[in-house]
Amino acid sequence: MKKRLLKTNAPDISAEHAAYLKGQKKKNIIVTLARAGILVFVILLWEILARTGAIDSFISSSPSRMLSCFVDLVKGGELAKHVGITLWETVVSFFLATTLGTLTAVLLWWFESVRKILEPYIVVLNALPKIALGPIIIIWMGTDQPAIITMALAISLFITILNTLSGFLSVEKSKLMLMKTLGATKWQTLTKLVLPYNLPNIIDALKINVGMCWVGTIMGEYLVSHAGLGYLIIYGGQIFKLDLVMTSTVILCFLAGLMYYAVALLQKFVSKKLNLD
Amino acid sequence: MNTVLQMQNVSLTYHTLKNETQAVKDLSLEGYEGELLGIVGPSGCGKTTILSLLSGILSPTRGEVLICNQKANCQSNLTGYMLQRDELLSWRTILNNVLLGLEIKKQKTPEKIEYAVSLLEKYNLKEFKDFYPNQLSGGMKQRVALIRTLVLEPKLLLLDEPFSALDFQTRLNVVEDVYSILKSEGKSAVFVTHDISEAISMCDRVIVLSRRPCSVKAEIDLSPLKEYTPLKRRELPVFSGYFDSIWRSLQDTKEKENEKEITKN
Q1: What is the ipTM of this complex?
Q2: What pTM value is reported for the model?
Q3: Residue B117 in contact with residue B126, Cβ under 8 Å?
């Protein structure tokens, strides 16, 4: 036994533990395979049903038609333009919502009476279906990117403020007491306790924000736009070109997933670095 | 002996929307240099309030609180407060947790950092200085919390049931550690607890408080036990005698309270 250990230089693993690890590995493989399998199955089924005429590919499109549509878009250089515009709008509104939201939350944490005064307004604004602001936004902001970014902001800002603020207010009383006993100023309490304590919260809010900003951008593009994935979808719908609608939607899925994944990576990195677990 | 703390006829009233509560009434007490003063009282009698008054976080409604002949003030460096739980910040290493107070007071000089490291070394925590709090045991964390307080070199330490969050065995050991740390640093301290045996095993003098609004009910001198460490004290035959007398004065306060309730009803 000792000899073998020296040879392999591996940690001493009992047979039971090895079996357990093997079992877990097998489970993981099954999950991955099933995930990929569902995708392949849906695509195949869709294609077969469309080809055999069981469904009308004019209104349901089909994977092969989407692929050729995608190739056309790439060849015409249109895809890069539309994706670029939508991505830009989403990223800008995401950064604006996060910074403005966090800053507002800090101010509301700092000034208790301002918080109490403004609370009902923020709650009502958060509850309001933002799409109702569409006409106002168009009239005030025009029919271009500023309007779209405003729409995305309207959707994501208030929820960011509320989530972040409730995180700030949930800091343990005993930790606040500690800062008090050390004679900390309000600014020190904010920078040394409240903000680092809430970093996981803020990053969680980022995850929600990514989704919200996508909703806002696409909704904005539905309202007013000359380009972007939302525009492609609406345009495709109007001229009954389902290939374009479906292709744009799939691209959208992919991009939104990618951005969410990027934030999740950031979260992992930050919590590891700051030992937040 | 020099007095390090003086409370003269101190009263404190809390105000909430529903009512006002008198937490402390006409309380006078003194603490001397190098002395470990225990404060025992029924739960909710305002023990923590007394520490808040001593640290200057709260100001008395009436009367005066003096630390080293100066009015208690939370910006001064005269008192060091140790809370019930360690309250170490999980995202800071042990050393950075110890340095938190220095950072806040803008005293993080190389000499002070060196002093912090030397304290960690003295109390067998140096090899953990780059660890994070969740990697340490409860007893170690409590020792780190004490060092975080000691680094500020306070004249008077305020200990607010600092062992209540520990399991019994850890507790006995940490009491022993903290006692020896306080004695070797020659610190004066006020130690608030509801645990009678803990008070007897650590303190030089114990004050028993009445129910709210609290005032001094009895005073027990433990100086005969001076040369014994906390664990040794628990083995002494006189231990139970002291326990009994504190217990009885605590019971008194309860019974009187009950009588009052009954006559009220």
Answers
A1: 0.83
A2: 0.80
A3: yes
